[in-house]
From TrEMBL:
Domain of life: Bacteria
Single GO molecular function: antioxidant activity
Signal peptide (UniProt feature, chain positions): none
Provenance organism: Methylococcus capsulatus (strain ATCC 33009 / NCIMB 11132 / Bath)
Domain Thioredoxin: 9-164
Protein's name according to its UniProt entry: Thioredoxin domain-containing protein
InterPro entries per the UniProt record, alphabetical: AhpC/TSA, PRX-like1, Thioredoxin-like_sf, Thioredoxin_domain
Length: 185
């Protein structure tokens, strides 16, 4: 498993459009996922220990971010051939078991992950109401193990600032996670 850090935020970069199948049987688009004050796009998967370490906090923070008027969506970009734990059926199971409050989508062709420039799981893209990128940082200080309770909620704080001002924080600490499992060309 290769761990990777996200690059710096490209402030103002527009959110690429998508239309992907969700574990709920619906097709989800960028327009359908966005909220009146913005959108959080998360690239996650089922097998990555970095994602597993923060799943409870992802659910908590997603609910709190949605309450701010920001839509939240999770996209699974990995090729499940070598990682069966990331199969669509397992995505459905994980989403149900953890009561994901957001759509969980499969990027089977990996075209959406490439369009966003996603590099790892988890990888967070926080957009303002105009769908301009304002955050490309981490959830919190967690890595392969969850941070202790009470740690600073960096993603939530950033998305709250975006909801209130349309601008993300100037200082952002990169997210770290497992590299995306790209299909062989």
């Amino acid at each position: 498993m290769v761990s990777t850090e996200t690059p710096e935020c490209e402030f103002g970069r527009k959110a690429p459009d998508f239309a992907l199948p969700g574990v709920d049987g619906k097709i989800w688009t960028l327009e359908r996922c966005r909220g009146p004050k913005g959108l959080l796009v998360m690239f996650i998967c089922n097998h990555c220990p970095y994602v597993k370490a923060v799943q409870d906090r992802l659910v908590r923070d997603a609910k709190d971010i949605q309450a701010l008027g920001i839509g939240v969506v999770a996209i699974m970009p990995n090729d499940p051939t070598d990682y069966p734990e990331d199969s669509f059926e397992n995505m459905q199971k994980v989403a149900a078991d953890l009561s994901y409050p957001f759509p969980y989508l499969l990027d089977e062709t990996q075209a959406v992950a490439r369009a966003y420039g996603a590099v790892c799981t988890p990888d967070f893209f926080g957009y303002n109401a105009d769908l301009e990128l304002q955050y490309r940082g981490r959830l919190d200080a967690s890595r392969r193990e969850a941070s202790p309770p009470g740690c600073r909620r960096e993603l939530y704080e950033a998305m709250k600032q975006i909801a209130e001002t349309g601008k993300g924080p100037a200082e952002q600490i990169p997210s770290m996670g497992c590299s995306i499992k790209w299909r062989n060309a």
